[in-house]
Design a protein that fits this description.
Elements lengths: L7 H12 L5 E7 L3 H10 L7 E5 L8 H14 L6 E4 L12 E4 L9
């Protein structure tokens, strides 16, 4: 629906990063058909100056989120970025490397592979 509020500590970290000229990328397993509502929700909840929002292609054949997200992080590092911190609420958000540090946020509601 695009009405989810920001997780306040995450928003505070995002603001700190942006104030210190640190690039912020959002990588999601949502497909491109959800881009508009995802962008609307991010902007409405305070994440308006993001460096990129990366969604899966509608035709993606990659079913495992961990493999997909690691490949996206690799592409970001190939552009010359060092991913200092990778945060996610699923183990699949964090596997596969290409980040100096990882932090798992609790999510008691759902699990994705």
């Amino acid at each position: 629906k695009g009405t989810d509020p920001a997780i306040e500590p995450t928003l505070a970290l995002y603001r700190y990063a942006k104030e210190n000229k640190i690039a912020v990328f959002f990588i999601t397993s949502r497909t491109e058909s959800y881009r508009s509502i995802t962008e609307k929700n991010l902007t409405k909840s305070g994440f308006s100056d993001r460096d990129d929002l990366i969604l899966k292609s509608e035709h993606s054949h990659e079913r495992l989120n961990g493999i997909y997200k690691a490949a996206v992080r690799k592409a970001i590092t190939n552009k010359g970025y060092d991913i200092a911190l990778n945060i996610g609420d699923q183990e699949s958000d964090l596997v596969g490397g290409y980040a100096d540090r990882t932090f798992k946020l609790p999510n008691p509601y759902y699990f994705t592979p």
